[in-house]
Amino acid sequence: MWDKIHETVDYIKNKINFIPEYGVILGSGLGSFTEDIDIKFTIPYSEIPNFPVSTVQGHQGALVFGNIGAKKIVAMQGRFHYYEGYDMKQVTFPVRVMKYLGVDKLVVSNASGGVNSNYKVGSIVILKDIINMMPEHPLRGKNDDRLGPRFVNMSEPFSKKMIQKANTIANQAGIEVHEGVYLGLQGPTFETLSEYRMVSKLGGDCVGMSTVPEVIVARHMNVETFGISVITDMGNEESIETITHEEVLEAAQNAEPHVRKIIKELILQY
User: Fold this and answer.
1) Where are the domains of the chain?
2) What's CA 119's distance to the chain center, in Å?
3) ∠ Cα 59 63 66 (to 5°)
4) Which residue in 179, 206, 201 sits closest to 191, CA to CA?
5) pLDDT, tens digit, for every residue of 177-215?
């Protein structure tokens, strides 16, 4: 793992002269955040050694380097999911690479299903915690102490300071946001009604198929992390019968201007 990370980092560094401070992982329907970036370099995943290639509609498949104001960032246009057939070390490999490119703050975004009755389709949720219900753990196996500790303190998966700043930004912009707990399941099926009820009983406010492994690995390497989710369907009788991936993308795109505003201002101000 160590050698692969540094092979990939060396390849990227040799192609570009750029040290990002922020990493951003763009989830379903949120790919146009790159329009807010003064782009300096774009590298398709297919050209990057040891990188998987995203296979999901709505995920572009490139690393984008550039500036938001004075801040240097690298954005992942499209992420990797366990359900695509990758193992957890492949899914989280880009987070490792971003760390060794210079990133010390990470923003993760996603689309998720809501179970909190205060949410509706299009609600924006600032994530305050995670519940890991995925069948494989990204830190399973021999630990490399150069990457991080064997046992990771997960008392603050998402930075409280970043959450506070994002809430302030949203309030000042008149954007309604919620705070919630994201529960990660394997997918790729959308949850059954009984599974949605299970998520709620376990303490989740929303549920999805990504993000959790990325956050665990970011915290393993002491990268300060912020998470934001768009509710694209509700886990109740009225919503569940019709949900499709196309509807998920549409709901995410409708909320996207607000999510983009929050992420952009957070990067500029924090």
Assistant:
1) 2-269
2) 20
3) 120
4) 206
5) 999 999 999 999 989 999 999 999 999 999 999 999 999
CATH class of 2-269: alpha beta
Cα dihedral 236, 239, 243, 246 sign: negative
pTM as predicted:
0.94
